Amino acid sequence: MSESPVAPETPELPLLQHPRAKVHYISNQNELADLVATLETSNGSIAIDAERASGFKYSQRAYLVQLRANETDIFLIDPAASPEMISSKEFSDLAAFMKDREWILHAATQDLPCLNEIGLYPGSIFDTELAGRLAGQPRVGLGALTESLLKFRLAKEHSAADWSTRPLPEAWLNYAALDVDVLHELKAEVENLLAQQGKLEWAKQEFDALLSFRPKPQKLDRWRGITGLHKVQDRTSLEIARQLWLTREALAQKMDVAPGRLIPDSSILIAATEKPRTRPELAAMKSFSGRASRSYLDTWWEAIQVAHKATVLPTLKPEKTDALPNHRNWINKFPEADRRLKYAKASLVELSEKKLVPLENLLTPELLRQVSFTPPENLSSQTISEKLKQLGARPWQIELTSELILEAFNLAETAPADPSMTSPPEPDEHEEL
Length: 433
Fold this sequence. Notes:
alpha/beta; 8 strands; 49% helix; 20 helices; 6-stranded mixed beta sheet
């Protein structure tokens, strides 16, 4: 028997380890003024990125801002270099310049909040990550997209670094510079893909919507997001968890430290379930053996005492809000809405595959749930379109999905029961209510 031919190995793509342009570290107003002067002689878009200290700090401030105009050097602005940097005339000049230019970002919603916080706003946006999604790319991380479209790899070993560290190591600055080194080329490639697929207008509408992007407001009962809290079934334990979470949050904010670096959720959960009655009992708990647990033991004990003395305890389940009920419970409580959602989702999944656009970009899950739960009274293509527009769908999304949603809703009302459309989904204990 002859042996099967061995497939040739795919050669490894070359690795881009160092920026291909000169890198300037900007740490004072004079250097900032030189940067603005250089940028003002450039044309076209500005590649921009920011580095935060997520997981290390409470705040989401920008600890480094990377800029590159087309074919210019790369500039790394250190907002933490001096207290006067952000409030200076030179930084105001930079902000005024940036507001008149298109920004190229990758995953814009991650960086826009911290850039807005220091006064930087774009004139327009091109998001290479979002563009990659719309173009049907299977992987859209910066490294993956660079590999598939530019045919080389990026050195990405410092993605989880603590960017509040000073001085910043040379290797980290090198890594940061690479992020904006490739963005102009990446934009050109993915823009070409969108043009070939007839999706440039879709992308433009999505990018325009990013100009008004704001993070969702935080919930009042964020403490209920403690990992494993769903296992707690008595109100005193819930109050202990709540008081410890609130105390940790206040201390973390004051110290500008990520809350989990003080005490993890697991420590809060164990204290809540074991309900220590004395400070020595708390000190004896293995879950409170970390450095911050010991340094602030009096603080944690005071929070537990407050919980024990509380006369008003939290309810076992969150208070009802105007938010939609968990869609996983619709099958029993709102069967008609459940059928509408499942029929509509099945149609959109098919369209998603046909158009090579991820389902969540074709129409966000939350938006589909909203229209499925409270559809227009008089169902028609026009009323569905108006409802989608009211909920924030873009024109290209409405054009593609409104008729399909109408057909799905009509089918949900008239079709005989289909086990695949009515079987309960697997429970997800971590999903928000």
